[in-house]
Model the fold of this input.
Amino acid sequence: MAKVMMKGNEAMALAAIKGGCKAFFGYPITPQSELPEYLAKHMHKHGGVFLQAESEIAAINMVYGASGAGARVMTSSSSPGIALKQEGITYMAGAQLPAVIINVMRGGPGLGGIQPSQADYKQVTRGGGNGDYYVIAFAPEDLQETVNIIKEAFDVADQYRNPVMIAVDGLIGQMMEPVDLDIEVPKRELAEKTWATIGTYGKRPPVNINSLFLDPQGLENHSWNLAKKYNTIKEKEQRYEMVNMKDAELVIVAYGTMSRIVRSALEELNKEGIKVGLLRPITIWPFPEKAFKEIPESVKGILTCELSTGQMIDDVKIANNGKLPVGFFGRTGGMVPEPEEIIKAVKDMLGGLK
Done:
């Protein structure tokens, strides 16, 4: 298939269908409403089910039920809607149920505004619900990468029996870009879903899906088993990209839309002979700590750039482990910076390091 021009939300919806999604439950909220709208029109043509729930809370619990029956299932929302889904998400993590969740982030806190933001970072990476759990979280940079990751995300969710979240912002959801929906993505060897509640037919013992452990020793054992799984994910699933690292004086850490703006700033800085690299997290959980071991000796400092007041900077500092000074530049509330603002932040930081 040749590349076609598509709106971000609609391309993400079609990518889910191509990834094998068979059920979608959601509720409209700007700036992701075109995603469920597209699925409402097209899901049935591909043998799937679409249902607009009465609320975000209802939607995530429908996802729980469909996943428990073994279906490949997805929901999508935007920041305050994801907040409402958090109880269901922690239930799913506790019950080890796979699903794909798309968060088209907008400004906050509270209802905030409908413009793009990355201020959900801690909600996404720390788990907005209760207990010892994580969701695997991808933060793609452009629409093609988003489409590819969504198609693969269903396999990732099934492999680890865990919710997977795709964190994009309103710009990626609303922009139009050319995408190839037929690019092959890695396929994973997946076990049969013997845990699913699809009936036993007298061939196996019945199964019970829940996240309730009234015996504290049983709950502790379960939590440590989850921790073991999360450690495996941390080891195997860190993804990142390193750009312009050779002889770099400064490294910018940025993801999603902000990393695209940083790329434009790097081009201008390179023309001026200022060598700056980009470390781009593709997974924000697990955070790509391994990437920081690849930062060259020439680097004098790290500048974290975000569409927030500084949500990712703590992870950068942890991964940096005190080796280099860490600075910050951010815009929030739906304000998107120009490359010139990043160039100024780079020059200011470099000036302070000399």
User: Anything to note?
Assistant: The chain has eleven helices and 14 strands. Residues 4-236 form a domain with the Rossmann fold fold (CATH 3.40.50.970). The two ends are 52 Å apart (CA to CA).
